[in-house]
Amino acid sequence: MHGLGASAYDFVDMPRLIPRPGTRWIFPNAPVRPVTLNNGWKMPSWFDIRYLAGQSEGERECPIEAQESSEMIMQMIEAEHEKGIPYERIVLIGFSQGGAMSLYTGCRFSSRIAGMVCLSGYLLFPEKHLDECSDANRDTPILLCHGIRDDMVPFTAGEQSVDFLREHGWEVEFESYPMFHEVCMAEINRVDDFLTQILD
User: Fold this and answer.
1) 177 Cβ partners below 8 Å, 6+ apart?
2) Containing structural domain, residue 146
């Protein structure tokens, strides 16, 4: 799942960079909707972002749109399952907003999946997380990766997400890289290792 304002084409090279024979990669596009933080301009977005972190009180992200996007992703999971793919062989991977959706959807999904990967993202709505998550994915492996120089989603957002998840029983691996809000080859190799670890 891509980040804000991007598209499915951002990660079409992943099958070449992470060659796993027999693996089916799916690259969804987020709905096009106005984004308050970007002057209300319409762009691909999994959910509206209303203001920068620390600028105001209240919900920074739109919970209704996050839930709508999550339901869309869950429908894709169910479609793959109907084709014969076991839930336990499905991994959710996302960058930035897409990473947030990976954690949001995976933790709420009613059947256990293989794993979740969040690249340069964060945990949405931690104050509601425990009430809304599913017991099915309480022990699902999670990989979070974040750039220590990230100027879009602060590194501390990744750290706080990891701390919260670990504190409440999730198994989380956390990797940091000397980069900004981007993806590097070392990180892609780490995702490859993670997929081998949970799928092979």
Assistant:
1) 145, 146, 147, 148, 184, 186, 187
2) 8-19+28-199
